[in-house]
Design brief:
single chain, alpha/beta, 3-stranded antiparallel β-sheet
C-alpha cells in the first residue's frame, strides 16, 4: 500500500493535536497518505477521530500508537520544584500510565484500520498477528539497524526509519537515559542506508524532510516513501496551536533535543524552559510528561514544547493539498535534474 502511492509522501502522526482528520483527509485526497496520532488520546477520542476521518475520505489512512514502557521509579520531586520555579505555576503530578494502549489496540484491530504504526517500542508478536489477520499493515518506527532487526523479527511489514533531524519525539525503542537522543544519532540518509543493508523490508524515511528534493533523495536511497511532519504544521488543516505557528513562521530559533518536557528525547525549538531544564529531566516518560502538562498548557511560547525538525524554517503556510502537490512537482524536478547531472558512462 505505502509503496503504491501516487505521491510518495506521508503526513506523519503528530501527537498533541497537530494531526487532525481534516489534515489526513486532504493529504489523502492529494494522492499521498496520512496518519492520525493515537498517542496521548483516550481510546474514545481516537475512535471519534477515526470516525471523522472516515467521513471525510474514502481513501486509506493510518493510526499511530505509542507502545507503553515501564514505570521509571525516578524521584521527580526535585525536578518538579525546579519546574515550578521556572514556570510560576503549579506543575502536574508525575505518574505512569499505559496511554490506554490495550483499548486503542483493540479499537484499531476491530475497525480494521488499513495501516497501524508503532512508536517508542515493539508490539507483541501476537498483537502483530492479530492486526495482520484483520487486514492491517503493521509499521514500526526505528532509528538504527539493530532496532530494525528487532522489528523485523516480530513481523513488521514496513519500517519507518527516523533520522535524528526529525522534529518531535525520537522513535528509539529504548531510551538509554544518558545520550541527548536516547541512543545513537544518525541522519536520515545514514540511517536509511544502514537499515536497508540490515533488513529486507519496505522502508519509509523520516527526519528533516521539507522539500520535494528531500523526497527524491530518500526515494532514490531506497525508501518507498518520505514521511514529513514539520512540513505540514503550518497547514490550515493542522491543529498546530497559534503560539507554535508564530514561532515556526518566525524561523529564528534553533532546535535542540531535550527530555525536559516529557522525559523522552524530542526535538523542538529552543525556548526558556528547554534551555533551563535540558539535562535535568530524567528518562521518565510519561511521568515527566504529566508533570509538565499544566505548564505547557499556559500557551506561553517560552514554556511550551514547540516540536520542530531541523529544517523547520523552510516550511511554508499552505493548504495540505498544495503542500503535497508542491512536494510532488519538486521531487520530479529534482529527479530530472539529477538524471541530467549524472551523465552516462
Amino acid at each position: 500500500m505505502l509503496d503504491q502511492l501516487r505521491v510518495p509522501v506521508i503526513a506523519a502522526p503528530m501527537a498533541g493535536g497537530a494531526s487532525t482528520p481534516e489534515l489526513v483527509a486532504e493529504v489523502t485526497r492529494a494522492g499521498a497518505f496520512g496518519f492520525l496520532a493515537g498517542g496521548l488520546l483516550t481510546a474514545e477520542a481516537l475512535a471519534d477521530q477515526i470516525a471523522a476521518t472516515t467521513a471525510l475520505t474514502s481513501g486509506p489512512f493510518g493510526v499511530n500508537l505509542f507502545v507503553p514502557g515501564t514505570a521509571s521509579g525516578a524521584d521527580l520531586s526535585g525536578y518538579r520544584e525546579r519546574v515550578r520555579e521556572t514556570a510560576g505555576t503549579e506543575p502536574g503530578t508525575p505518574h505512569w500510565d499505559d496511554d490506554e494502549y490495550p483499548a486503542k489496540l483493540e479499537l484499531v484491530t476491530a475497525l480494521r484500520v488499513p495501516v497501524v504504526s508503532f512508536t517508542f517500542g515493539l508490539p507483541l508478536v501476537r498483537e502483530v498477528a492479530r492486526l495482520k489477520a484483520a487486514g492491517s499493515l503493521v509499521v514500526v518506527t526505528v532509528t538504527t539497524a539493530a532496532e530494525a532487526a528487532q522489528a523485523a523479527r516480530i513481523g513488521a511489514d514496513v519500517l519507518c526509519v527516523q533520522g535524528a533531524d526529525a522534529g518531535g519525539h525520537r522513535g528509539t525503542l529504548a531510551d538509554d537515559g544518558v545520550s541527548p537522543g536516547g541512543g545513537e544519532l544518525l541522519g536520515v540518509l545514514a540511517a536509511l542506508r544502514l537499515v536497508r543493508a540490515a533488513v529486507d523490508l519496505p522502508l519509509v524515511a523520516a527526519g528533516g524532510l521539507v522539500h520535494g528534493a528531500d523526497v527524491a533523495a530518500v526515494v532514490t536511497a531506497g525508501a518507498v516513501a518520505a514521511q514529513l511532519g514539520t512540513a505540514f504544521l503550518l497547514c490550515p488543516e493542522a491543529g498546530t496551536s497559534p503560539p507554535h505557528r508564530r514561532a515556526l513562521v518566525d524561523g529564528t530559533r534553533p532546535t535542540a533535543l531535550t527530555r525536559a518536557f516529557s522525559g523522552r528525547p524530542a526535538r523542538g525549538l529552543v525556548n526558556r524552559f528547554l534551555t533551563r531544564h535540558t539535562g535535568q529531566a530524567p528518562a521518565a516518560y510519561p511521568e515527566v510528561h504529566h508533570l509538565t502538562k499544566p505548564v505547557r498548557a499556559t500557551g506561553d511560547p517560552e514554556l511550551m514544547s514547540l516540536w520542530a525538525g531541523q529544517t523547520y524554517s523552510l516550511a511554508r503556510p499552505a493548504p495540505a493539498a498544495e503542500v503535497v502537490q508542491r512536494l510532488h512537482l519538486e521531487a520530479r524536478q529534482a529527479v530530472s535534474d539529477a538524471i541530467t547531472r549524472i551523465s552516462p558512462l
